[in-house]
Amino acid sequence: MSLTRRCVLAAGAAAASASLVRPALAAPAAGSLSPQLLARATAALNRHGAQIANRDVIAIADFAQPSRQPRFHLVEVASGKVSSHLVAHGRGSDPGHTGWLERFSNDFGSNATCSGTFRTDGYYVGAHGRSIRLSGLDPSNANAQARGIVVHGAWYVSPEMARSRGVLGRSEGCFAFGSASLEEVMARLGPGHMIYADKVTA
Which domains does the chain have, with CATH numbers? Predict the structure, then answer.
């Protein structure tokens, strides 16, 4: 899937030197990258440019989509190419386990997904195997690091589960991926990359 050349903006100087992505003009199909969310992610990249060292790839989590849809998008800034993956949201964001994220929360003990701009900080091996630590750069996710919100693998995320149950399992607020997707996410979102998570509703 490609976002067209007008999705890519040349770099300026200093903090604004990051390559920027413009929103696509065409209306997105179900499960594709929302132009409105892409615009928000672009603004976030501008706002936090000094803290995002690596801008070759950005990630955008579209939590307006249900968990059965590939809604975590890896965007190549130079080419506009997108790779989309299944990702779980927090159980506190979906207490009825409907597959739809109902609310974000930055609160300790909420077990909810939080919205905003995240920076990938480094790899580690923990309870879920190889994972990526995250720092929240906005007030809406400022507790992410202290809450232990990370990128990790999970048995409850897979295309088979999405097909058979219509929903994925839920995390404690982390970005949880199936094994195949986790391998690509790990390879392409090393330290210093941006993840932007939000939802745009009509």
Answer: 5-198 (2.40.440.10)
